[in-house]
Amino acid sequence: MTSEELLRLLEAHWTTVVTGLGDDDLGRVSGALREMREETVAGRPAAVARAVRRLKRTLAALPPGHPVSEALGGHRYAAGARELPRLTTIDAVIGVLGTPPPDPVDLLRSARRRLLAAPALTEAEHTALTGAGSTGPPGGPDPAAGLIRLRDPDDGIRYPRFQFRPGTAEPLPVVRRINALLRADRDPWGAADWWLGGNRWLGGVPADLLGVLPDDALERAAAELVGAY
């Protein structure tokens, strides 16, 4: 895993990184990121590698099963790599993580309100369109398998609407494939944030680019983000 890939992974899952770490660890993350930026500007890859190792040690405090923890457990950062991360990538991660945020809980609530405001199917609407409950008929396939399910405290389960063909509850195959890459079953909020947030590599919001960009372009962007390529 390169430093650029690690940064993209952090950006994709920033909401749960913020809430999964304590204030002290968030401060260490911020310090490591700023050190990475300074050493990248100076063109010192060995010093950038040291900052990345500090960053990885701090991220080890994330809960077991967190997508960042799992990705780091399956990859080793090549300390001798000569590639330096992009300053724009470092700045994007510093911007979303803060130094540290004044109140991570408020930050998370704000992010979740934004995601819940997107068009979605309620549990009842999904059931009406599929003719089955969220887990499907006994012994049958789960009609919601592979989909992002967000829990709204006021409205129950919500399925972001971009996941389905217009006017139906038929999931788009590319959405299911990308959701699997983003570990939507374990981090539905992080997956929803990727789909519904701006993406500078794709030049827009991924959910808005469904049917506009080729499916493989969207899949490649998600795969590169989580280090699957």
Cα radius of gyration in angstroms? 19 Å
Largest sheet features: 3 strands, antiparallel
The fraction of residues in strands falls at under 5%
Distance between the termini: 10 Å
The dominant shape is: globular
The residue ranges in which pLDDT falls below 50 over 5 or more consecutive positions are: 76-81
Number of helices: 11
Q: Could you tell me the number of beta strands?
A: 3
Structural domain tally: 2
Strand order of the largest sheet: 1-3-2
What do these coordinates show?
This protein is mainly alpha-helical and 229 residues long. 52% of the residues lie in helices and 5% in strands. Helix 1 (3-12) packs parallel to helix 6, helix 3 (23-42) runs antiparallel to helix 4 and helix 9 runs parallel beside helix 11 (215-225). The N and C termini lie close together (10 Å).
